[in-house]
Structures are given as structure tokens and as C-alpha cells.
Design brief:
The chain is mostly helical. It is 77% helix and 0% strand. The chain is built from twelve helices and no strands.
Length: 273
């Protein structure tokens, strides 16, 4: 791996993890042009890049994250005392529950994890799915004005979780899918973006924990470790900028630009792959 490759992959991860244009799809395409060694080498590097973007979420929403931690334990306390009615729960406690409900569908990803990972080796397939991602964004923008606005609920949280499950396929954006799901279930655009980002914490953390045994089984060359950390830093910087940009856009505009971008990149990949 070279310094340029590490920085490019880091920038791609940071920008595409939070912008609705698929980080896994862009990384799969990038790896086809910038191979970084063995499969486990790719895995280690990708894990560090995802950890970098996870740190960004904590930094961006630190007030919300730290307010939810005590709410998680008070929620458990009420469950143990038999207080099942959500009416007796605080807003933060309900929000914790909805995040858990939204994460539950991701357990199904374990059933077809290896088959999904194999798709990353086929840039043309990834390109086609990127085009589909653009179509999903267009549909969400079209339907968002036609759906009755409502707060997040257990039902909508589970539905958004199904959108997140679909996004394990490289080329479908996790943020784009979950934001689109939120819009289709009636969430306000800003709330859909926030819920998507908060959902990313258990999703990214869980994916990294699952990959740790594979990463530890093959040590990384000492000469590459410094480049991996530089890539992680690049992912953190670009990720923070991407989050600021997406929040700004969500407050003032639609996601049409991202839809057209995904369709263009997907089409270009189909032609050049």
C-alpha cells in the first residue's frame, strides 16, 4: 500500500459512509483499482476506516449519545419491574428502544454474510446496485411529500431496520437506505437523518466486532500499519465534513443530486469495469 492509496480510500470511506452514495460500493470499486494486498489486508484496513467513521458519529452527536446511555439502564430497570407500557417511559427511553428494534433485523445478515461479501469482487454488479441506490433516493424524495408526517415508533423503527439490512449489499448505501426508509415511514427529513446516524453506531460496531477474529488471524505487515492509520485519519476528517454537509442539505433541499451521482457512477462502472 502507498500513502496515496491510503488517503484516497480513507477519503472515500469518510465521504461515502454518511453521504447516501454507498461506502461499501465505492470501496469495492476502489479496491479493484487500488489493491491493498490480501483479502485479510483489505479487511483490516476497512475495519480501521469504519472505526474512524464511528468515532465521528460519537463526536457529532455526543450530547445525544451520552444522554441515551443512562436512559438505556433506566429502560432496563423499568422492564425488570414490569413497566411495559411505553406511556410510562421517557422520550429518551423510547428512543433507545426504537434504536434496538431498528438494529434487530441486522442479525439476519449473518445468514448470508459470505455471499454478500463475494459481490464486492464484481464491479459490474456493484455498479448496477449503485444505480438501484439512486432510484431508491429518487423514490424517497418523491414519496416524502405524500406520506403523513409522524414521529418514529417501534413499527417504523423496525421498517427502517429492514432498509438497513438491505444495505449490507455493496452498492446500496446504509445512510441512503435508512434515510429513505425514514422518509417513507413519515419522519421529517432532519429526524430521518439523525435516526440514520444514531442507527449507524450499533451497526458499524457490530460489523467490526464480527470481523475482529478474521483480522487477528492474519497479522498486518508492519510497513502498512502507518498507512492504515493515515487512512483512518482521512476517513475521520472527511466523514465529519460529510455529516455536516448532509445535515445542511437535509434542512434545505432534496437528495436528487446524490441520486443522479449514484446513477452516473454506477453507469460508468458498468462501462469501464
Amino acid at each position: 500500500m502507498t500513502l496515496l492509496e491510503a488517503v484516497i480510500c480513507g477519503l472515500i470511506q469518510g465521504l461515502t459512509e454518511f453521504l447516501p452514495i454507498s461506502s461499501s460500493g465505492h470501496l469495492a470499486i476502489a479496491h479493484s483499482y487500488f489493491p491493498v494486498g490480501t483479502e485479510n489486508g483489505n479487511l483490516t484496513f476497512d475495519l480501521l476506516l469504519h472505526l474512524g467513521t464511528l468515532i465521528v458519529v460519537f463526536a457529532f452527536y455526543y450530547k445525544d449519545v451520552f444522554s441515551l446511555i443512562p436512559s438505556f439502564f433506566t429502560m432496563l430497570g423499568k422492564l425488570f419491574r414490569g413497566k411495559w407500557s411505553l406511556a410510562s417511559w421517557s422520550r429518551q427511553e423510547r428512543y433507545v428502544l426504537f434504536l434496538i428494534v431498528a438494529t434487530v433485523p441486522m442479525a439476519a445478515a449473518l445468514l448470508f454474510r459470505e455471499r454478500v461479501e463475494m459481490l464486492s469482487a464484481y464491479p459490474k454488479i456493484v455498479g448496477g446496485i449503485l444505480i438501484l441506490n439512486g432510484a431508491v433516493l429518487m423514490l424517497a424524495d418523491f414519496m416524502s411529500k405524500r406520506v403523513k408526517k409522524r414521529d418514529v415508533s417501534a413499527f417504523s423503527a423496525f421498517g427502517i431496520g429492514l432498509f438497513q439490512l438491505a444495505a449490507v449489499v455493496p452498492g446500496l448505501s446504509r445512510s441512503g437506505s435508512t434515510i429513505s426508509g425514514g422518509l417513507l415511514f413519515g419522519l421529517e427529513r432532519e429526524e430521518a437523518v439523525k435516526f440514520s446516524f444514531m442507527m449507524s453506531i450499533p451497526a458499524i460496531l457490530g460489523a467490526n466486532l464480527l470481523n475482529i477474529p478474521d483480522v487477528l488471524s492474519t497479522p498486518v505487515a508492519s510497513g502498512d500499519l502507518g498507512y492504515y492509520l493515515i487512512g483512518m485519519a482521512a476517513a475521520m476528517i472527511s466523514g465529519f465534513c460529510a455529516m455536516k454537509l448532509l445535515v445542511y442539505i437535509s434542512e434545505r433541499s432534496k437528495f436528487g443530486f446524490f441520486a443522479y451521482y449514484c446513477i452516473a457512477v454506477g453507469t460508468l462502472t458498468l462501462v469501464l469495469a
